[in-house]
Each structure stands twice: as C-alpha cells, then as structure tokens.
Please model this.
Amino acid sequence: MRQVRATHKVQARRTLENAMRRYGFVAVAGVDEVGRGCLAGPVMAGAVVLDAGRHIAGLADSKALTAADREALYGEIVARAAGWAVAAVEPTEIDAINIHRATLKAMREAVCMLAPLPDLVLVDAFRVPNLLIAQRSVIGGDRQCAAIAAASIVAKVTRDRLMRRLHADYPGYGFDRHKGYATADHLAAVARHGYSAVHRRTFRPPTLFDTRG
Model:
C-alpha cells in the first residue's frame, strides 16, 4: 500500500466539502495556485472536483509532501477525481498585468476549464473576480480542505514537470532544482547570465551577493 509521508501530521479533510454538499452544492471544486513567488516560469492554478465516492488517502498541502509523494498523489487525483484542470499565465503576461492579477486569472481559467462546471468553488486565501459561480475563500485551505490540497498537488506537479523541461532549454539556471524560486544558486546564475526568456522582468529581488554595508 502507498504511504504518503507529509512533513507534518495534518492531512486535509473533506469536512468543508461535505458541509457544502449538505447545503445542496453537488460538485465542489478546490482551487489553488503555485509559482506566485518565483522569478521564472509561469504561475499556475489547479482546480479539482473530488469524487465523493472515491477516497484518496494522504491529501495534504503540496509543500508538506515529498516530490515522490506528490507524483503518486497526482496519478491518483487525475484517475479518481470527478474533474480536474490546470491553467497557466506566462511570464510576459505576468509582467504586463502583475502577479496578483495573473494569479487570479490562472485560477479563473482553471475553474472554467472544468467540465461540467462546479456548483461551488473553494479558493485558497483568495476570492476570484468575474467568476459567475458561487465561491468561498478558505484561509489555509491547502492544509484543511481536501479539494484545495488536491488542486495544489496537480498544479505543483504540472509546474515542476514544466520547469524540468525548461532546464533542458536553459541549463545554466538550475530550473530542475529550484523550479524558478529565488534560491541562492538561482540568483548566482542570474548574476552570471542575466535573465532568460522565461524570467519575469518585473521581479527584482534584492541580491544575496551584494556585500556592501
């Protein structure tokens, strides 16, 4: 039997989804984003409607899982969920509209890609504008709500796979390791090579290598 090793003890539950179903909402989607704070690559959002009759054990915030566990859960989610989708907004558009709007756009597009559309959307920490579906913002939703945790996993796995592919095109940046986040080795690579075509030009973090007082 597969064992998922979360780095904390809390696994996300279906308590909130079940409560919403008792209010008459049948298809309840969870939505979450990944890559919001990265220097390179797209911001992505996942949307998942879990099947009430097909339990998936071990769902948790994607950040609390190992890469191997995320991959295993991804396979179960896409096989067992009633619906799932991932949407991306690329770096050029992030630069044009800003990361907050890009994140909300990715979330909205992921929800709208679901077929059929859900009755209710549970969103981790945000409210999505221009979404003509009932929604509820859930603070810390990726740690509490199974559907949101599932959305965080499919978005994270999809994005990590993309960043590994981008590493083949831009091998000098280490995208396969840090996935575009502002790690020390990523900032060192930017200092050596400058920004690549997949970097966000409007993201200017303070350098870790400025030794001036």
